[in-house]
Input
Amino acid sequence: MVTVETKIPRVEVVDALRGFAVMAILFVHCIEHFIYPVFPDPATQPEWLNILDTGVESVIWTLLAGKSYAIFALLFGFTFYIQFTNQQRKGKDFGPRFFWRLILLVVFSFINSAMYPGGDVLLLFSIVALVLILVRKWSDKAILIFAIVMLLQPVEWFHYIMSLFNPEYALPNLKVGEMYNEVAEYTKAGNWGDFLWANITTGQKASLFWAVGAGRYLQTAGLFMLGYLIGRRQLFVPSDSSLKFWLRALIIGAIAFAPLYQLKLEVMGDNAIINGTVGVAFDMWQKFAFTAVLVSSFVLLYQSERFQKLTFNLRFYGKMSLTNYITQSIIGALIFFPIGLNLAPYSGYTLSALIGLFILVVQVRFCKWWFKSHKQGPLESIWHKWTWIGSKRNT
Output
């Protein structure tokens, strides 16, 4: 007879950390105008504003770009652990149901991409997350080894080694630049029909192909598995052993980041093969190291009441991450693009960051209002209900 145990309770630090990741994604998307590369001419702005813009771009890009998505991916794997374990305690295998859940995520990805030129990370997640179904019953050691292999970027090293044996060897030309330019032209034209169609077709294709060259597929798989292991080892639950783990992660990440970042700068140059192979590997590694610094710092700081109060609103924001992520794209498109207010040509990095702050405040207030009468966000509730459609369990 199967003993039905209680569900794993929500972990506050995970909600707050997820909220931080979604907030970081918002600021990165805002300063890049949601992949609409239209900015004011620096010659038309005062020098102090140009200096401020440079500083704002540098800070947000250095601290958050490539790390916010990584945190999101790590927590995606952790969430799978929660869902899989809750069903396992009931004597059920969540794997097949998770596959259906990923199909639903594909639908959400196309909703988001409709307003986000250049594709969407949710589609990448829905494809790569199949690896979680594969490894769900593996041992911790096997999963860790597989995750490390993925994070080492073996495809990039394969291409580099092949280039050493064949001077004529070239990386596949996926025509990502051409596709992004095509989408940008439709965005600039401001025709709603063409804009939406280009985004969900060419834009999604461009995003998936760009992720190939950027090493995102294997890194995302590795991050998913690490998040799953973090759940298994209860590392987000405060204890002496978990806090020691995060302290070690902070120290190792901090020590590794600087040399890895410098190595990336050293190898990047005019050689397309090196840039697209060794350069990509070092870039992924330095971003992973800094992601470890961000996550471990957040978890350690969260042990203090002062930091918990400071990040209190992020818990609401993180609990509604899917809704906030998709509505960011809708709001951003209506603010920056010709289909809306067309503020991109007048918004430098500083103003764009302030717009991001405004969107954040509006979204947080909506979250707090919504949770007064609901347990889940609007899209989270739909995703949950449709996940369990056809099942006797629909809670």
